[in-house]
Amino acid sequence: STVLPDSAIVEFLNGRVAEARGDHQTAARHLGEASRLDPDLPGIWSALGQSLAKSGDSKGASEALAEAVRRGQGGAAAAYNMGVVLSQKNKFREAIPYLEDAIEADPENRDAYRALGAAYRKEKRYDEAARTYQSILDRFGPDSKDLYQLAFCEAKNGKHSNAAAHYEMVTAMQPDNVNAFYALGNAQSKIGEYDRACAAYQSALELRPDFHGASFGWALALQKQGDFEAAIDRYELTLEIKETYSSYVNLAICYKNLGDEESSDEYYALANEVKKKGR
């Protein structure tokens, strides 16, 4: 049978109506038919890729969006959606060039910057990730999520002073962010600001009393300060949350520094028992 000239347009419009209703599978079916009838229909490949992605067909979405990029259809949106689909498939290395193109074509797409930062982070390219998150903050203004990610990347790069400053900004913006207080404590401990680290760990524990990592970090900061008696008290409380080899060993070290060899030997023995149990 003869295909009417406007058949592809009708299928395209039916697809957009289904998309507006949230029926992504029906939308993808209509748009797929439109692409078959007229592969050169403006915007068809980008629209099809987005519908396929929303319907859960990441392989089909990837192919359609790649076709959109190849044909120059959809511009920044097609490149962005292609990058997102690839990221969802954990293909971060392949996603990065598309997301970079999306930002170059549309520098105001904040989501594209965030997706690019996340892809760099997943690839352990922390310098580039940090620069991306800094670009977001410079262009769009302060945001606790972007500050947190920037601080995370800085910490991974060993820039603990910068990380501490940015984590502190996050805690000021989100005083209930337990992970930010914990990360702040870690960063401050790394640069020898043990009093401030202890305060950050304490804040984390006030928000989540069973936060083992924060309790251990607090004890370790006290130990590094040379306040062995306070460290012993904190390690004992840490063991109430969870028994670990590290807590027992550090208790033994603290007692040894206080000249209590008997208690030190006792905790070394307990550490070895825990190690045998694989904890």
Number of helices: 16
Oligomer: single chain
Strand content: under 5%
Elements, N to C (H/E):
HHHHHHHHHHHHHHHH
Cα radius of gyration in angstroms: 27 Å
Task: Pick out the low-confidence regions.
Answer: none
Q: What share of residues is helical? A: over 70%
Describe the sheet with the most strands: none
What is the SS-derived class? Answer: mainly alpha
End-to-end CA span: 72 Å
Mean pLDDT: 92
What overall geometry do the principal axes of the alpha carbons give?
elongated
Q: Find the count of extended strands (DSSP E, 2+ residues).
A: 0
Please supply descriptive tags for the structure shown above:
279 residues, 16 helices, 0% strand
What does this structure look like?
The protein is mostly helical. The chain contains 16 helices and no strands. The radius of gyration is 27 Å and the shape is elongated. 44% of the residues are buried.
